Amino acid sequence: MFLISKVFWIVFQPLAFACLSILLALLMLLSGKTGFGLFFIATALVILVVTLFTTTGTFLMAALENRFSRLESTTPPVCAIVLGGGIHTGHSAERGTYVFTRAADRYIETLRLARLYPDMHILITGGDNGLSGSLHGEAEPAARFFIDHGIDGHRLILESKARNTAENASKAARLLDENGIKGRCLLITSAYHMPRAIQLFEKQKVTVTPWPADYRTGGKAGLRFQFDRPATNATMLSTAMREWSGLIAYRLMGRTKTVLP
């Protein structure tokens, strides 16, 4: 299933699919099938316009990010579960340090909470989610980051094999049980990723308090043309579509109870 999801996204992410449509159009035109050729050209054009010059991605991202907010409580959390994705595993391994991705706020927010709650455990789960599987996970560079910033290494629980969110949840559940951690646990991941993550942890019978981080939108977004930010628009739509695809796929496979909780 992991391999299928990777191949699916390589083909169907917006810009890749637009390129594929152009290639199919050329093949159709060269073979004399003008009607099919024009159809694929039109398909590619529509995808490119929507991807590069509209706020569709921002609109879809905001819908995901607004589902959960941080629930403050007077009860200190006993653990923070941090989902991988905030550290570039390849660059970190090559450079011998921690190289952050755009989702670095997952770790920055966890560090803030770790200082606020000195007895809170930190469970970091995230392996190499590439097709090769040859790189180290996020556990080692993440541990180095927290220790470098004054967090006692004994508070850290590390998991470096999970390749996707479902494996994050199952492996984290096992580690919580093995370490006898019971009580209020915060789930820290990107806000747009929280709807899928929260359901997968519930499926593992792990009760978590959502603590979204790494916001990509301001929360309010409408659909309109936007011609001055094509690269940003493309990134937003690609990220949003990947997450929505994951939500739908997990629901169809029975891994979650609903598409959008």
Description:
This protein is of the alpha/beta class. The chain folds into two domains: about 1-65 and about 230-250, no CATH class; about 80-215, HUPs (Rossmann fold), CATH 3.40.50. The chain is built from ten helices and five strands. The chain has helices at about 1-10, 15-30, 35-55, 55-65, 90-95, 105-115, 140-150, 165-180, 195-205, 230-250, and strands at about 80-85, 120-125, 155-160, 185-190, 210-215. Strands 3-2-1-4-5 form a five-stranded parallel beta sheet, with helices on both faces. Helix 2 (about 15-30) packs antiparallel against helix 3 (about 35-55) and helix 8 (about 165-180) crosses helix 9. The longest helix is centred in the C-terminal third of the chain and has 23 residues, at about 230-250. It starts with a helix and ends in a 9-residue tail after the last helix. The mean pLDDT is about 95.
